[in-house]
Hints:
This protein is mostly beta strands. It contains no helices and ten strands. The protein is globular, with a radius of gyration of 14 Å.
Amino acid sequence: xxxxxxxxxxxxxxxxxxxxxxxxxxxxxxxxxxxxxxxxxxxxxxxxxxxxxxxxxxxxxxxxxxxxxxxxxxxxxxxxxxxxxxxxxxxxxxxxxxxxxxxxxxxxxxxxxxxxxxxxxxxxxxxxxxxxxxxxxxxxxxxxxxx
Length: 147
């Protein structure tokens, strides 16, 4: 469930929906990672189709190279299509976490939203994401964002 979009598509071979395909392969060659061009404030977002109460967002970060490109990425959750209007979930990715394969963004309390985004803040770089999981409060179950 869900439809993803991103600021741009790297070489036309990096669709945003790859990050919600259920494939957790963290290597570009696994054809499971989304990838933007080298954009200012590059972003990726998913439209869940309806509003949910979100408590965690888990991002699988690329590991075969460039894993630190996710430095200063911020996750936001909300009901606005405009990323900046939505509420931050967790803290931006700091240098100590930028090379981790699994990045957990714990929302400060529960945040209601239809849109979940990942955006590089105040940076010009590539953004590549290999999988995004959105955890919602209804029965504390994981929302399956795969199509």
